Amino acid sequence: MRGPAYHSVVKPFVDRLQVENFFCVKKVDVALTRLHAFIGPNDSGKSTLLRSLVFMGSRTAGSAYPQAPTWASLPDAMVTAHMGDERWLQVSDQVGNRSSAGGHLGLAQLVRLEPDALRQPCRLIPHNQRISFENERGVGLAGVLDAMLSRHPEQFLALRARFTELFTGIERVEIQNTSDHKKVIGVTLDGGRQVGPEGMSEGMLYWLAFKALQYATKPGILLIEEPENGLHPARIREVAALLRELSAETQVLVATHSPLVINELQPEEVTIITRTAEDGTIATPMTMTKNFEQRRQIYALGELWLSYADGVLESELVGGDDAKDTKAAG
Ligand SMILES: Nc1ncnc2c1ncn2[C@@H]1O[C@H](COP(=O)(O)OP(=O)(O)O)[C@@H](O)[C@H]1O
Ligand SMILES: [Mg+2]
Fold first, then answer.
1. Which pTM value belongs to this model?
2. Can you name the residues that pair with 276 across neighbouring β-strands?
3. What is the pLDDT of residue 9?
4. For position 90, what pLDDT does the model report?
5. Could you tell me the distance, in angstroms and rounded to a whole number, from the CA of residue 257 to the centre of ligand 2?
6. What sign does the dihedral 47-50-113-265 (CA atoms) show?
7. Cβ distance 55 to 78 under 8 Å?
8. 52 in ligand 1 pocket by Cβ < 6 Å?
9. pLDDT tens digits, residue range 254-267?
10. Is 274 in the pocket of ligand 1 (CB under 6 A)?
11. Which CATH number fits domain 16-108+219-318: 3.40.50.300, 3.40.50.2300, 3.40.50.1000, 3.40.1190.20?
């Protein structure tokens, strides 16, 4: 809860999310933490749960999709976000309730980075504007880094030094000009040859983007799709540490398939998402998975998940509670 013990200023976060009749979710009630991961099979509803928070407070249920569904197209949908004693409620199609979802949750921001978007030329961010990516795919990386260079030069230099340590063969990372007055990210290789974003690996681009997120203006909630994408296992750990740092400033929810991300989290920070035809999306806290206490003695969290995950219904995990040892039927 929001006890004063942790920080001098404790920022509120969504500690419970209830979603009903929202795409594949029939009814889900999930406890969240400042840094929290949804893990589970493909197509189980992880992204849908993240998006329920983006949709709250937006006029259409749309910003995350090309063909924006509207609330009106989601009859009976309901999303409730609890923050300590307060709650924000969005009921489908009821304009009157929408404003209450504004404020904090109106600032939820989804991030699902794509290498080609990170490579795209972009405009500079004027001095009086907040630092942010142009869209959820990461267009605007060079602009964010340029703003970081001008507003926090010492941090930019630290980032640049770390980048050179991590990625061998690189003399330095830099912001380059394009012929049409835009900016792109690029690197100078050892030996002095300059290459643009097309010469940078996905690992480099993703690492920079996660680092840049620290300097971007923080949304109320940061929702991150598969932060492990394109990253070497050794880099995933570093990104998980970055997410932990970010979570000191804003709530961070991730959807992931990576045991390496999970290894960096506490049990209460992980929820397993599965889906059945009958019940729709189901959320099971990691701590409530079968035989959790025993298994926890043997496995790191990510290994625990990996050892029992079947990629379909995760029956060996969610099939029963701690006390029981029954196999899930179906
Ligand atoms: N905008 C949408 N329109 C229709 N169906 C959707 C939409 N969003 C999610 N769904 C349903 O949710 C299911 C799970 O999707 P998703 O949340 O992306 O899974 P995951 O992220 O766990 O892989 C999809 O197969 C689909 O049935
Ligand atoms: Mg997904």
1. 0.88
2. 280
3. 53
4. 67
5. 9
6. negative
7. no
8. no
9. 999 999 999 999 99
10. no
11. 3.40.50.300
